[in-house]
Fold this sequence. Notes:
single chain, 8-stranded parallel β-barrel
Amino acid sequence: xxxxxxxxxxxxxxxxxxxxxxxxxxxxxxxxxxxxxxxxxxxxxxxxxxxxxxxxxxxxxxxxxxxxxxxxxxxxxxxxxxxxxxxxxxxxxxxxxxxxxxxxxxxxxxxxxxxxxxxxxxxxxxxxxxxxxxxxxxxxxxxxxxxxxxxxxxxxxxxxxxxxxxxxxxxxxxxxxxxxxxxxxxxxxxxxxxxxxxxxxxxxxxxxxxxxxxxxxxxxxxxxxxxxxxxxxxxxxxxxxxxxxxxxxxxxxxxxxxxxxxxxxxxxxxxxxxxxxxxxxxxxxxxxxxxxxxxxxxxxxxxxxxxxxxxxxxxxxxxxxxxxxxxxxxx
Length: 331
């Protein structure tokens, strides 16, 4: 399986390559990608450097243009597609069908991957994208059980990519109505969840209040590390008890599922974290490189080394991991 790794900067890209990435995915520094945070991502000039570095290393470069084009601004998404094509990237990761149609028409030889933002969860949807836009790969949403992934892999007309490690949020794959409700912006439309301009950190006594657009999201005492205020992971008073009302901060970790995913024919594993720094990238990619190499050497003897999980646990949101929707024993 191909190891697809994130990079939000050139230093992160360098580390990803040195740590064993087979492919690196990046985005441009605007709202055409779903990680449009200040200080992140690549100008056309830096993207050209990235392409040169990746191809010199004999690896692949993917560019995510995976937000939905906004009314009156479609030219920005067209320009992003053209810039990526000019770089000679190995694939575009797209979600918007209008952008996909433009890319297929304008650059017919360019590989197109369906983004997780496309939320295709059945063979009919994958077939539609394959027949109409010629996609060669699809990234599956993190809402499917392992059994459903296996069934879909058996029917899919294109190669499939799944997420291996990274933060989880409410499972609508970027279609965050909560962020939109509070700030007017969401990942799949504006490329950002809980935009930094809406975040307030307010010292309170020896603790800290965090607010989003003025709305109190959480209150931390002096012994706690204050987390970034996202509405879905805030703590609220519910029936007299303060708790994570919607979901706890946690990260997906599918190391233990690698043999099953490989047996199902999954073509690639993606690591989440373009907003993370080089230290995260280096350690997480290194763990997954070791795991995939171990699986390739001895598929039947593969096991998860304790130190792998210890390392990933340190980088997990909330310092805890889960199999997420993959693990549904009642199905």
